[in-house]
Amino acid sequence: MQKIKFFRTKLWTKHLFWLYNYLRSHPKLLCPYNYFRFGKWTSDAIPNRIVIEVTNYCNAHCFMCPNSKIKRKRGFMSWKVFKKIIDDAKEFEGTGLEIILHKDGEPLLDDMLFERIAYVKKNLKKSKVSFNTNAYLLSEEKAKKLLKSGMDIVIFSVDGASNSTYNKIRGLDYNIVEKNIKAFFNLKNKSDSKIHAIMQMVVYDENMHEIGEYKKLWFDADEVVFKRMHNYLDQGTSIKTNKLEKRQIRRCYQVFNQLHIFWNGDIALCCWDYDHFLNLGNVKDTNLLTVYNSKNFIDIRKAMWDMDCKHMIPCNRCSEIFGYDRGEN
Length: 329
Known about the structure:
Layout: E1 3-6, H1 11-25, H2 27-38, E2 49-52, H3 79-89, E3 98-100, H4 113-123, E4 128-133, H5 140-148, E5 153-157, H6 163-170, H7 174-190, E6 196-203, H8 211-217, E7 223-228, H9 254-257, E8 258-261, E9 267-268, H10 288-292, H11 295-305
Parallel strand pairs: 1-7, 2-3, 2-8, 3-4, 4-5, 5-6, 6-7
Antiparallel strand pairs: 8-9
Helix pairs in contact: 3-4, 5-7
Protein backbone atom coordinates (compact mmCIF):
# COMPACT_ATOMS: atom_id res chain seq x y z
CA MET A 1 0.00 0.00 0.00
CA GLN A 2 1.37 3.40 -1.01
CA LYS A 3 2.45 5.77 1.74
CA ILE A 4 1.90 9.51 1.36
CA LYS A 5 3.52 11.90 3.81
CA PHE A 6 4.83 15.38 4.34
CA PHE A 7 8.46 15.29 5.45
CA ARG A 8 8.91 16.31 9.06
CA THR A 9 11.43 15.80 11.82
CA LYS A 10 11.15 12.23 13.07
CA LEU A 11 10.54 11.76 16.76
CA TRP A 12 13.81 9.88 17.20
CA THR A 13 15.86 12.88 16.05
CA LYS A 14 14.41 14.93 18.92
CA HIS A 15 15.75 12.38 21.40
CA LEU A 16 19.07 11.83 19.64
CA PHE A 17 20.89 14.68 21.38
CA TRP A 18 19.69 13.66 24.81
CA LEU A 19 20.82 10.08 24.16
CA TYR A 20 24.15 11.23 22.72
CA ASN A 21 24.92 13.51 25.65
CA TYR A 22 23.86 10.89 28.18
CA LEU A 23 26.03 8.21 26.59
CA ARG A 24 29.00 10.55 26.19
CA SER A 25 28.71 11.31 29.90
CA HIS A 26 28.66 7.59 30.71
CA PRO A 27 31.44 5.92 28.67
CA LYS A 28 30.71 2.60 30.36
CA LEU A 29 27.31 2.65 28.65
CA LEU A 30 28.55 4.01 25.31
CA CYS A 31 31.00 1.13 24.84
CA PRO A 32 28.34 -1.61 25.06
CA TYR A 33 25.98 0.46 22.86
CA ASN A 34 28.65 0.77 20.16
CA TYR A 35 29.42 -2.92 20.50
CA PHE A 36 25.85 -4.07 19.95
CA ARG A 37 25.09 -1.43 17.28
CA PHE A 38 28.40 -1.32 15.41
CA GLY A 39 30.36 -4.36 16.62
CA LYS A 40 33.09 -2.23 18.24
CA TRP A 41 33.86 -1.84 21.95
CA THR A 42 34.77 1.85 21.90
CA SER A 43 33.60 5.20 23.21
CA ASP A 44 34.42 6.86 19.86
CA ALA A 45 31.70 8.50 17.76
CA ILE A 46 30.55 6.22 14.92
CA PRO A 47 28.38 7.33 11.96
CA ASN A 48 25.38 5.22 11.00
CA ARG A 49 24.94 7.00 7.67
CA ILE A 50 27.69 7.47 5.06
CA VAL A 51 26.91 9.86 2.20
CA ILE A 52 29.20 9.30 -0.79
CA GLU A 53 29.35 11.81 -3.60
CA VAL A 54 30.04 9.66 -6.66
CA THR A 55 30.08 12.87 -8.73
CA ASN A 56 29.32 16.57 -8.37
CA TYR A 57 28.41 16.96 -12.03
CA CYS A 58 24.70 17.46 -12.67
CA ASN A 59 22.55 17.68 -15.80
CA ALA A 60 19.77 19.71 -14.15
CA HIS A 61 19.61 23.41 -13.29
CA CYS A 62 17.41 23.53 -10.19
CA PHE A 63 17.11 27.11 -8.97
CA MET A 64 17.05 26.05 -5.29
CA CYS A 65 20.16 23.87 -5.57
CA PRO A 66 23.67 25.25 -4.91
CA ASN A 67 25.29 23.01 -7.53
CA SER A 68 25.77 25.92 -9.94
CA LYS A 69 27.62 27.84 -7.19
CA ILE A 70 30.21 25.13 -6.60
CA LYS A 71 33.77 26.47 -6.91
CA ARG A 72 35.59 23.24 -6.01
CA LYS A 73 36.75 20.97 -8.81
CA ARG A 74 34.27 18.72 -10.62
CA GLY A 75 34.85 15.03 -11.05
CA PHE A 76 33.88 11.42 -10.42
CA MET A 77 35.02 9.40 -7.43
CA SER A 78 37.79 6.98 -8.36
CA TRP A 79 37.26 3.29 -7.75
CA LYS A 80 40.25 3.28 -5.40
CA VAL A 81 38.74 5.92 -3.11
CA PHE A 82 35.28 4.35 -3.24
CA LYS A 83 36.62 0.88 -2.45
CA LYS A 84 38.59 2.24 0.52
CA ILE A 85 35.47 3.88 1.96
CA ILE A 86 33.43 0.68 1.76
CA ASP A 87 36.31 -1.46 3.04
CA ASP A 88 36.80 0.90 6.00
CA ALA A 89 33.06 0.78 6.75
CA LYS A 90 33.21 -3.01 7.17
CA GLU A 91 34.96 -2.36 10.48
CA PHE A 92 31.83 -0.84 12.03
CA GLU A 93 28.90 -2.10 9.93
CA GLY A 94 27.44 -3.86 12.94
CA THR A 95 23.68 -4.24 12.49
CA GLY A 96 23.77 -2.19 9.29
CA LEU A 97 24.54 1.27 7.91
CA GLU A 98 22.87 3.63 5.47
CA ILE A 99 25.00 4.09 2.35
CA ILE A 100 23.80 6.97 0.15
CA LEU A 101 25.40 7.28 -3.29
CA HIS A 102 24.75 10.92 -4.05
CA LYS A 103 25.42 14.33 -2.58
CA ASP A 104 25.80 17.37 -4.85
CA GLY A 105 25.41 15.72 -8.26
CA GLU A 106 23.37 13.35 -10.42
CA PRO A 107 24.41 9.72 -9.78
CA LEU A 108 23.14 8.38 -13.12
CA LEU A 109 25.95 10.35 -14.81
CA ASP A 110 28.41 7.95 -13.17
CA ASP A 111 29.48 5.08 -15.46
CA MET A 112 30.55 3.02 -12.43
CA LEU A 113 27.31 3.46 -10.47
CA PHE A 114 26.04 -0.10 -10.79
CA GLU A 115 29.49 -1.56 -10.05
CA ARG A 116 29.53 0.57 -6.91
CA ILE A 117 26.11 -0.70 -5.82
CA ALA A 118 27.24 -4.29 -6.37
CA TYR A 119 30.40 -3.74 -4.32
CA VAL A 120 28.44 -2.28 -1.40
CA LYS A 121 25.88 -5.10 -1.45
CA LYS A 122 28.65 -7.71 -1.56
CA ASN A 123 30.73 -6.23 1.26
CA LEU A 124 28.16 -4.58 3.54
CA LYS A 125 25.44 -7.20 3.54
CA LYS A 126 23.44 -5.74 6.43
CA SER A 127 23.45 -2.18 5.11
CA LYS A 128 20.90 -0.33 2.97
CA VAL A 129 21.92 1.44 -0.24
CA SER A 130 20.06 4.35 -1.81
CA PHE A 131 20.38 7.38 -4.02
CA ASN A 132 18.31 10.31 -5.24
CA THR A 133 17.98 10.98 -8.98
CA ASN A 134 16.14 13.32 -11.34
CA ALA A 135 15.58 10.28 -13.64
CA TYR A 136 16.30 12.19 -16.86
CA LEU A 137 18.99 9.64 -17.73
CA LEU A 138 17.00 6.61 -16.57
CA SER A 139 16.99 4.68 -19.84
CA GLU A 140 15.33 1.27 -20.11
CA GLU A 141 18.76 -0.37 -19.83
CA LYS A 142 19.57 1.54 -16.64
CA ALA A 143 16.11 0.85 -15.22
CA LYS A 144 16.61 -2.90 -15.71
CA LYS A 145 20.07 -2.71 -14.11
CA LEU A 146 18.66 -0.77 -11.18
CA LEU A 147 15.92 -3.34 -10.59
CA LYS A 148 18.45 -6.18 -10.67
CA SER A 149 21.08 -4.37 -8.60
CA GLY A 150 19.72 -5.29 -5.18
CA MET A 151 19.62 -1.62 -4.21
CA ASP A 152 17.21 -0.92 -1.37
CA ILE A 153 15.80 2.55 -2.04
CA VAL A 154 15.59 4.90 -5.02
CA ILE A 155 14.17 8.41 -4.71
CA PHE A 156 12.88 10.13 -7.84
CA SER A 157 12.95 13.91 -7.40
CA VAL A 158 10.18 15.39 -9.55
CA ASP A 159 8.90 18.76 -8.37
CA GLY A 160 5.68 19.09 -10.32
CA ALA A 161 2.95 17.29 -12.20
CA SER A 162 3.05 19.33 -15.39
CA ASN A 163 5.60 20.41 -17.97
CA SER A 164 5.24 24.14 -17.24
CA THR A 165 5.62 23.83 -13.46
CA TYR A 166 8.43 21.28 -13.52
CA ASN A 167 10.53 23.09 -16.12
CA LYS A 168 10.58 26.29 -14.05
CA ILE A 169 12.22 24.37 -11.22
CA ARG A 170 14.48 21.72 -12.74
CA GLY A 171 15.33 22.98 -16.21
CA LEU A 172 14.87 19.52 -17.74
CA ASP A 173 12.27 18.11 -20.14
CA TYR A 174 9.40 16.93 -17.94
CA ASN A 175 7.98 14.65 -20.64
CA ILE A 176 11.22 12.63 -20.76
CA VAL A 177 11.39 12.38 -16.97
CA GLU A 178 7.76 11.23 -16.68
CA LYS A 179 8.20 8.69 -19.48
CA ASN A 180 11.35 7.25 -17.90
CA ILE A 181 9.81 6.85 -14.44
CA LYS A 182 6.56 5.35 -15.74
CA ALA A 183 8.63 2.86 -17.76
CA PHE A 184 10.59 2.03 -14.60
CA PHE A 185 7.39 1.32 -12.63
CA ASN A 186 6.06 -0.79 -15.48
CA LEU A 187 9.22 -2.92 -15.39
CA LYS A 188 9.18 -2.99 -11.57
CA ASN A 189 5.60 -4.29 -11.48
CA LYS A 190 6.61 -7.16 -13.75
CA SER A 191 9.74 -8.03 -11.78
CA ASP A 192 10.45 -9.53 -8.38
CA SER A 193 12.60 -6.54 -7.36
CA LYS A 194 12.15 -5.42 -3.74
CA ILE A 195 13.52 -1.93 -4.32
CA HIS A 196 11.52 0.72 -2.46
CA ALA A 197 10.72 3.47 -4.98
CA ILE A 198 9.87 6.92 -3.62
CA MET A 199 8.47 9.88 -5.53
CA GLN A 200 9.59 13.13 -3.92
CA MET A 201 8.30 16.63 -4.58
CA VAL A 202 9.91 19.77 -3.17
CA VAL A 203 7.00 22.08 -2.43
CA TYR A 204 6.83 25.88 -2.64
CA ASP A 205 4.28 28.52 -3.66
CA GLU A 206 4.51 27.85 -7.40
CA ASN A 207 3.79 24.11 -7.33
CA MET A 208 1.59 23.53 -4.27
CA HIS A 209 -1.53 23.47 -6.47
CA GLU A 210 -0.29 20.26 -8.12
CA ILE A 211 -0.01 18.13 -4.96
CA GLY A 212 -3.36 16.41 -5.58
CA GLU A 213 -2.53 15.60 -9.19
CA TYR A 214 0.94 14.40 -8.16
CA LYS A 215 -0.56 11.82 -5.78
CA LYS A 216 -2.83 10.49 -8.55
CA LEU A 217 -0.08 10.46 -11.17
CA TRP A 218 2.37 8.40 -9.13
CA PHE A 219 0.02 5.76 -7.73
CA ASP A 220 2.58 3.06 -8.60
CA ALA A 221 5.16 4.48 -6.18
CA ASP A 222 5.78 2.71 -2.89
CA GLU A 223 5.84 6.09 -1.19
CA VAL A 224 5.14 9.73 -2.08
CA VAL A 225 6.95 12.39 -0.06
CA PHE A 226 6.45 16.15 -0.02
CA LYS A 227 9.31 18.31 1.29
CA ARG A 228 9.04 22.02 1.94
CA MET A 229 11.59 24.00 -0.04
CA HIS A 230 14.46 25.03 2.24
CA ASN A 231 17.61 27.09 2.06
CA TYR A 232 21.05 25.69 1.48
CA LEU A 233 22.64 27.69 4.27
CA ASP A 234 21.24 31.22 3.75
CA GLN A 235 20.53 31.38 0.02
CA GLY A 236 16.93 32.64 0.29
CA THR A 237 14.79 29.85 -1.20
CA SER A 238 13.15 28.63 2.01
CA ILE A 239 9.40 28.91 2.52
CA LYS A 240 9.95 28.78 6.29
CA THR A 241 13.04 30.92 7.00
CA ASN A 242 13.04 34.48 5.71
CA LYS A 243 15.85 35.71 7.93
CA LEU A 244 18.38 34.03 10.20
CA GLU A 245 18.06 34.59 13.94
CA LYS A 246 20.95 36.27 15.75
CA ARG A 247 21.30 33.34 18.14
CA GLN A 248 21.39 29.61 17.46
CA ILE A 249 17.96 28.16 18.17
CA ARG A 250 18.47 24.47 17.33
CA ARG A 251 21.07 21.75 17.09
CA CYS A 252 21.88 19.83 13.91
CA TYR A 253 22.03 16.05 14.21
CA GLN A 254 24.17 15.43 11.12
CA VAL A 255 27.54 15.91 12.82
CA PHE A 256 26.57 13.32 15.43
CA ASN A 257 25.59 10.40 13.19
CA GLN A 258 26.54 11.07 9.56
CA LEU A 259 29.73 11.16 7.50
CA HIS A 260 29.67 13.01 4.16
CA ILE A 261 32.42 12.47 1.60
CA PHE A 262 33.11 14.50 -1.56
CA TRP A 263 34.06 12.75 -4.83
CA ASN A 264 37.80 13.37 -4.28
CA GLY A 265 37.79 11.89 -0.77
CA ASP A 266 37.63 15.19 1.13
CA ILE A 267 35.29 15.18 4.12
CA ALA A 268 32.23 17.43 4.02
CA LEU A 269 30.71 18.75 7.23
CA CYS A 270 27.11 17.95 6.27
CA CYS A 271 24.71 17.72 3.32
CA TRP A 272 24.53 21.54 3.13
CA ASP A 273 28.32 21.89 2.88
CA TYR A 274 28.42 22.05 -0.91
CA ASP A 275 31.79 23.78 -1.33
CA HIS A 276 34.16 22.25 1.25
CA PHE A 277 33.93 25.14 3.68
CA LEU A 278 35.96 23.34 6.39
CA ASN A 279 39.11 21.22 6.16
CA LEU A 280 38.17 18.00 7.95
CA GLY A 281 40.67 15.72 6.24
CA ASN A 282 40.55 13.20 3.41
CA VAL A 283 39.66 9.51 3.51
CA LYS A 284 42.72 8.71 1.39
CA ASP A 285 44.97 9.69 4.31
CA THR A 286 43.41 7.70 7.14
CA ASN A 287 40.47 5.43 8.01
CA LEU A 288 36.91 6.67 8.44
CA LEU A 289 36.69 6.41 12.21
CA THR A 290 39.97 8.28 12.71
CA VAL A 291 38.64 11.11 10.53
CA TYR A 292 35.29 11.11 12.34
CA ASN A 293 37.00 11.35 15.73
CA SER A 294 39.57 13.98 14.80
CA LYS A 295 39.97 17.04 17.05
CA ASN A 296 38.13 19.18 14.48
CA PHE A 297 35.08 16.90 14.48
CA ILE A 298 35.08 16.60 18.27
CA ASP A 299 35.23 20.40 18.62
CA ILE A 300 32.38 20.78 16.11
CA ARG A 301 30.18 18.31 17.99
CA LYS A 302 30.89 20.08 21.27
CA ALA A 303 30.03 23.48 19.77
CA MET A 304 26.84 22.04 18.29
CA TRP A 305 25.85 20.45 21.58
CA ASP A 306 26.56 23.71 23.45
CA MET A 307 24.64 25.64 20.75
CA ASP A 308 27.68 27.84 20.23
CA CYS A 309 28.16 27.80 16.44
CA LYS A 310 27.89 31.54 15.79
CA HIS A 311 31.60 31.79 14.89
CA MET A 312 31.82 28.50 12.97
CA ILE A 313 31.68 28.55 9.16
CA PRO A 314 29.38 27.43 7.51
CA CYS A 315 27.17 26.63 10.53
CA ASN A 316 26.72 30.32 11.31
CA ARG A 317 24.99 30.72 7.93
CA CYS A 318 22.70 27.72 8.34
CA SER A 319 18.92 28.18 8.34
CA GLU A 320 18.47 24.80 9.99
CA ILE A 321 20.03 25.89 13.28
CA PHE A 322 19.69 29.68 13.01
CA GLY A 323 16.33 29.45 11.24
CA TYR A 324 13.31 27.22 10.86
CA ASP A 325 14.24 24.68 8.18
CA ARG A 326 14.71 21.86 10.67
CA GLY A 327 13.50 18.51 9.39
CA GLU A 328 13.74 19.41 5.69
CA ASN A 329 16.81 17.19 5.22
